[in-house]
Design a protein that fits this description.
434 Repressor (Amino-terminal Domain), mainly alpha
Length: 72
């Protein structure tokens, strides 16, 4: 996952982890774990679809965020 690109979309839409977590029905710690891929936490398809809709992401954006091979 490309965390930097994901966060840039959050900032662009004036979102913070707390507001996104609330909108998704997740705890802040669970969202953070998914973003940082801690302890096997990953976004599921429904959550990715929610994020795609919330931020108006294209299929290419989704690939670049969620299916990035190299994360810095």
């Amino acid at each position: 996952m490309n965390k930097s690109l994901f966060r840039s979309h959050m900032i662009k839409h004036k979102d913070i982890q707390r507001t996104l977590a609330s909108a998704m029905g997740l705890s802040l710690s669970r969202l953070n774990a998914k973003i940082n891929q801690k302890n096997g936490a990953e976004f599921n398809q429904q959550e990715m679809a929610f994020i795609k809709e919330r931020y108006g992401l294209s299929a290419k954006d989704m690939d670049n965020i969620f299916f990035a091979k190299q994360v810095s």
